[in-house]
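Supplementary Text 2. Reproducibility record for the structural model of the 238-residue chain.

All settings were left at their defaults, and a single model was retained for analysis rather than an ensemble. We include the record here because the model underlies the residue-level annotations in Supplementary Table 4.
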Amino acid sequence: MEYLNYELLIKLSLSLFFGLIIGIDRQIKHKPLGLKTSMVICVASCLVTIVSVEAYIRYATEGINNIDPMRLAAQIISGVGFLGAGVILRRSNDVISGLTTAAMIWAASGLGIAIGAGFFIEAFYSVLLILFAVNIIPYLLKMIGPSSLSQQDVAVRIVMEPNQQMTELLEAIERKGKTQKEKKHSNMTIRKLKLKDLDNGNQQIDLTLSVPEKQYTTEIYYLIKKIEFVLTVDVEHL
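Retained model, structure tokens:
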């Protein structure tokens, strides 16, 4: 019967914590490797490392201590990595998506290896940590964390008539709230900006906006649509 090794559970918990720290830093800086992905990868990597080390100790026998019971498992991890890479997409607007899904696929292979090696408690605890990392922690951080963690990115494409009021357009989009509550729920921040002259003489502006998660797409659309000289507006959640 398997005994409960608290040291291994502490290692898994610490891996979740350090993955959380890395994820918060990436999330605040709006990098592709976000909060969920960092935690899932860190916990799964810790689990596979534990299984690899402990399996050697568990299955090595007297006189035969040079075996490597995890050699085949290492090939499984590499193979599933290619499967996970298949769900990572790079959109036309240079946005990368699918990283968390790929990390979950890779983590699932690690859990299967742990079960196959007989590490039932560690695998079960890792599942709880991964589900907690993906579903609970991001929600808590959006509630009590900095406002940048409760924002989402929106791609906006604007076609305008030729004019000299482009700066006024950007100021109208990046409006500023007066109170702290308004700043958290109303402000939109321009992160990326690209200007282009079209063949018909009109001007095209491609923007990446950070907006509050609760803000409706229609609100962004009508805000920009009513600005003078704006001809067409395309809004897409990233």
